[in-house]
Amino acid sequence: MKILFQARPDFMKNPAGDTVQIVSTGQALKNLGIEVHLSADPNVELSSYDLVHIFNITRIKESYMFFLNAQKQAKKIIISPIYWPPNAYLKREGANSNALAVWKHMQPMRSRLLGECDLLLPNSQIEMEVLRQDFLRHAPYQVTPNGFPDSFMGATPELFRKQFPDLPKEFILCAARISPRKNQHWLAKICEELDLPLVLLGPINDQNYYKNVKDFSNVTHIGTLQGELLASAYSAAKVHALPSWFETPGLSSLEASACGTVVISTDQGSPKEYFQDMALYVRPLDDMSLRTALEQSFNASPTPLMQHVQKQYPWSRVAEITLEAYHKVLDQGP
Fold it and tell me: Would you kindly state where each structural domain of the chain is located, as residue ranges?
């Protein structure tokens, strides 16, 4: 089986959740013997591929071009929407006043992809329900969750501690690109009020926002970590907090929980479908919810969530579910 992944051209240069989903799904499928190629060319020749798998309808312009090209060449099309309506985020104080109008203007393009592709792979049933609310029609779907690297199981703090010996023994960790959507400024503010050290991992998406976050004296920004060192960082942290405006469900929350870390998550998006009652939840900009979650987190046990996530969400299992979806579409015939 030969599959073409298509994604926004800057998915490696400006990494986000879709980057991890694309790279990790692709590698796990290759481990199953599937030939996976990647292209950001909207005019790529498709005759040698069995199907086209398009990621992300939030950045719709590129995905729409990939879709038109695949449709023109009569290829089967699978879409991972990675969708959540950003209305509350785009209406927040300080947001671009045109952003919501632009989002709504693009909805007909999203609607066409959802209605005319062969299969949708939402990351959760909750995401699918939101797609149903926002769009009149949609293709068949199969829930295909996000995952964490299988190698993260059994992570220990030693490697991280050795590399960063000056960090406090107990700290809050937030691994995410530093941007208003991830809400690190709010997290830093409440952590400072509670006298809790905060360690940030991830690339800087917004320099002005980053400067405001770094103004808090309790914040240390390390940059981007990967692989074994990232797993060790999760393992070393007392708590991982991701109080974003929304997540589907937050890859770093999944990864942290697999490494045995207590998780504080936003309640917006699909985290509750993944973490159920085994994580602590906050509502964006409800100071009391974050304050309470941080206070409770130090007495919470990470074990139930760790066991649940390790069983349900390794990328190897996600790849098997994805491959099942491919077979479903290809077995339908032309």
Answer: 2-147+314-330, 151-312
